[in-house]
Predict the structure.
Amino acid sequence: MLPRAGGPELWVNTSLSERWGFTTSWLLWVQMFPGMVMVASVIAPLLAITISHDSLATSSTFTLVCILVVYWIVSILNIFFDMARLGGRVGVMFGVYLPVAVMFLLGIAAFIKTGIRPHSYLGHFRMSDLLPLSKGSVGTLSFFAAIAFIYSGIEMSSVYLPRLKHPEKTYSRGIFMALIFMFAFNTILALAFANDVPKGTIQLNNIAQAPTISLQILGLPSWIANVFAASVLIGVVVQLSAWASGPSKTITDSAQRGDYPPFLRFWKTNKFDVAPTVIVTQAAIISIFALLFILIPGVNSAFLLLVTATAVLYIVVYVLMAIGILRLRSTQPDTARPFKMGSDRTAWIIIVVFLVTAAASTFATLWYQGLTHAAAIVGITVVLTVAPLIIVHLRKESWRSEVQKAMGTPTTPREKEKVL
């Protein structure tokens, strides 16, 4: 319906209002605060295995130090180099394709050799656990939002719609193919992981845990685990570097429109089109979130809180988009809709089911994580959602003119005429 640049911010702007569109772009930025800490925490166990000091993988202090050192390094590099261009393909290759392939092959090989291991997570599985709210499955609801987060962000691929010859056919097919592959590979890898790791010993932020155990099962040299961890470590660091500058561009664009106080200098970019003040600001806030690893006992607990907070923030964005779809059905009924999901009744059913599912999954996740974690997640979500609304309320028209003047953009009709 809106096949042009802008993504979720454009969609919510069009369907609801500029205020909620701004809130959407803000949430897509701030969700990276707990999200980047979560991703960066993977570095600690990978580095520990690389240097053959596996015991460090579960150290909260070591995890915190790794997050702070690595993220500040990649932030500084992003100010002085075009890191997104330099490392995009390398990060995906070593951070995604390599670990998926190695984990898949080693997991299948270990399963063929041993079958289902009785002391593993999979060895304790019962078919009755598949039933909702059964005795064996009810506790796993604390992971529900984290699992849902795997699929978040898939809507951003729609920005490439104009490049497709027949988007009304090819895009929808591509999305469903992507979902099928994501579900299949994540399920297979999860089963392999569950069959390797002894029950009660899982390290949520350690991607190398299962491959290391698989190598022991297969009798292969331990140095392979060192090489695997080092390779994935490089990939994760490179991806972190690319992600450090990507989402910040949305904030820079908003600042150049006068949405933020000019003195923050979020509008000021360097030759790499990166705003140093935005990079430094998000690095400082991410450092504060990283302190959760020493404030909360246990790496697993801190990791789960961070991934849940990230998922809930993203769910707020989806809720805004869902409400926007219903509103557009009534305010713009005659607008062309290449991807129309059916009649108004069908749209209402789909959106209502989605909203109920989002609310239920969020409630279940918070309920089974305990009062303290639930309060922290709710607090983070409320503060980060209310903040953009306050900014919009305080916004002044002078911000726009000050920024345009500082950027050398003509602001008056006479100045514009001179430029022409």
Observations:
- Residues 7-419 form a domain with the Amino acid/polyamine transporter I fold (CATH 1.20.1740.10).
